[in-house]
Amino acid sequence: MNRSTILTGLNDKTILFGLFFAFDNQLQAAGDTFYEGITSKQFFLIICLSLFHDHCPTIKELSEVMGCSHQNVKQLANKLENKGVLNILPDDKDKRKVRIVPTEKLMQLERKHRKRGQEFMERLYDGLSDEEIGITLKAMTKVESNLTLIREGKV
């Protein structure tokens, strides 16, 4: 039985809720085959790390950008440090903080896979217009804001 048949009769909000989980699983499975030896979640940490242009972020800063717990980011960062992709170093001014510092190996990895990454993004959004992507981004940003309010107990 295919998914469309199973979903017949459900409202769009319920279907969309289920799709979030299905997309998470599919994106993780596709991403886990992308880089050799690095999972999709580790790859996401690397992407988020690259967003910090003016400083090396703390684990707390990365966890806020990634939308996951401090412990989860620490676990991912430890695995990447063991692979030589980044370093976890104490902050110069506040020893309670630790910073995530990219290594040359990370830079080499990004250069090596840049074209493949662009191809992956093109394939992921194949058939969607720029307008559809913009509308989807706007809607997903609103859903993310709602999730933040729910998590903080403000709803």
Structure description:
Helix content is 65%, strand content 6%. It folds into two domains: 32-113, Winged helix-like DNA-binding domain superfamily/Winged helix DNA-binding domain (Arc Repressor Mutant, subunit A), CATH 1.10.10.10; 125-155. It has helices at 3-7, 12-32, 40-50, 59-66, 70-82, 104-124, 130-151, and strands at 86-90, 98-102. It is built from seven helices and two strands, in the order H-H-H-H-H-E-E-H-H. The radius of gyration is 18 Å and the shape is globular. It has 155 residues and is mainly alpha-helical.
**DSSP strand content:** 5-15%
Instruction: Determine Rg (CA atoms, Å).
Output: 18 Å
**Multimeric status of the protein:** single chain
Q: Tell me, rounded to a whole number, the average pLDDT.
A: 90
CATH class of the largest domain: Mainly Alpha
Helix content: 55-70%
Q: Give the beta-strand count.
A: 2
Regions with little confidence, pLDDT below 50 for 5+ residues? none
What fold name stands as the CATH topology of the largest domain?
Answer: Arc Repressor Mutant, subunit A
The helix/strand series, from N terminus to C terminus, equals HHHHHEEHH
How many angstroms separate the termini? 37 Å
CATH superfamily descriptor of the largest domain:
Winged helix-like DNA-binding domain superfamily/Winged helix DNA-binding domain
Biggest sheet overview: 2 strands, antiparallel
Number of helices: 7
Strand order of the largest sheet: 1-2
CATH architectural designation of the largest domain: Orthogonal Bundle
- Envelope shape: globular
Structural class: mainly alpha
